[in-house]
Write a structure and sequence with these properties.
The protein has 4 helices and 4 strands; from the N terminus they run βαββααβα. With 103 residues, it is α/β, with parallel strands linked by helices. It has a single domain (19-99), classed as Rossmann fold (3-Layer(aba) Sandwich). It has a 4-stranded parallel β-sheet with strand order 2-1-3-4, sandwiched between helices. Helix 1 links the parallel strand 1 and strand 2.
């Protein structure tokens, strides 16, 4: 499974991606997690299973509803609390639920 975490410039998404990657490893899941910016979209869709959008990009989330679905990518708007989370559990669970892969 491949997850892309996107925020405006890519900085905050790097922290979220790191926490998700660590949490996935702790759970023994084979998941690739990358961070990126909204400038990468929609070109990034073919290589990912889930796209996690930062809460400050809710407008982008609304605009993207159809494109990821057409590409078979699960789209998730992360909650406001995501950047203060101590681990990647919430983001990872949202991604797994969105693609139907939660165990």
């Amino acid at each position: 499974m491949k997850i892309l975490v996107v925020c405006g410039a890519g900085a905050s998404s790097t922290f979220v991606a790191h926490r998700v990657r660590k949490t996935a490893a702790e759970r023994g899941l084979d998941i690739e997690v990358a961070a990126g910016s909204d400038a990468q979209l929609p070109a990034a869709f073919p290589g990912i299973d889930a796209l996690l959008i930062g809460p400050h990009l809710s407008g982008l989330y609304e605009d993207l509803q159809e494109d990821p679905a057409a590409a078979g990518v699960a789209l998730v708007l992360l909650p406001e609390t995501i950047f203060s989370a101590r681990d990647g559990n919430v983001a990872l669970d949202l991604a797994l639920d969105a693609v139907g892969a939660r165990s």
